[in-house]
Design goal:
The chain is mainly α and about 240 residues long. The chain has 14 helices and no strands. The radius of gyration is 22 Å and the shape is elongated.
Length: about 240
């Protein structure tokens, strides 16, 4: 380790150790949120020292293990996850406050499996409302929970608008803090399901778009092959 790297490493590892010690005290009162934000701050340090490569993370993991032998969660792999976690939410205080309410395992699973943040939000709010374990969350992601609402609307179309009205009312009552369950939006979910139910390629593409972008595309572009061009351009160019 050259002198510049060694100097930066000593500064970083001191900051991390002090942060861990301070967080250990606070964790008695606010266990999860303090731990998650500790990981976020460590992730920032990992990112700020990215120029030193994998050896920096490896040395940090070794130092923490020596200093805190009874504490788990600071492996090389997890330190890399902290860096990824920081990069996902570094510019958004609202997201930071929201994900701080989730267990670490839930957060990593969501980052790995759900790239579209609008869709990720659906799962986060469902976890907070329903208390899903990590295994249940994984199952809901694999079975595309966010799409099933639209399918339910279609499967019960024979009951007309009254069914959607009742579903909207029930969801708003059950999940008052979650937006997006208006009658109008439920109708869009039904349309969304009908548009892509037999097209796995388009399902993967539109999952990368915001919900608002998807509604605009459904309203303005009727042919899927042309819609695909606009969707891919939006993903590429933001």
């Amino acid at each position: 380790m050259n002198k510049i790297i060694e100097k930066n490493f000593k500064i970083a590892i001191k900051e991390i150790k002090d942060d861990i010690k301070n967080t250990q005290v606070k964790t008695v009162l606010q266990a999860n949120s303090n731990l998650i934000m500790l990981y976020y701050r460590i992730g920032k340090i990992m990112f700020d020292n990215s120029k030193y490569g994998n050896s920096f993370i490896k040395n940090v993991a070794t130092e923490i293990k020596i200093e805190f032998p009874s504490i788990q969660g600071f492996s090389e792999r997890n330190l890399r996850s902290m860096k990824l976690f920081y990069l996902e939410y570094k510019n958004d205080k609202n997201w930071q406050q929201l994900v701080a309410k989730l267990p670490w395992g839930h957060n990593i699973l969501l980052i790995q499996k759900i790239k579209n943040k609008d869709i990720r939000m659906i799962y986060i709010k469902a976890v907070l409302s329903n208390g899903w374990s990590r295994n249940i969350l994984d199952f809901q992601i694999k079975t595309e929970y966010h799409k099933r609402i639209g399918k339910i609307m279609f499967d019960n179309y024979k009951y007309g608008n009254k069914f959607i009205d009742e579903v909207s009312r029930e969801l708003k009552f059950e999940f008052p803090s979650i937006e997006g369950f208006s009658v109008r939006n439920l109708k869009y979910m039904k349309k969304f399901y009908l548009e892509y139910r037999d097209d796995e390629l388009m399902q993967r593409i539109v999952a990368q778009l915001s919900w608002r972008h998807n509604i605009v595309l459904m309203n303005k572009i009727k042919e899927n092959n042309i819609r695909k061009l606009y969707a891919e351009a939006t993903i590429k160019n933001g």
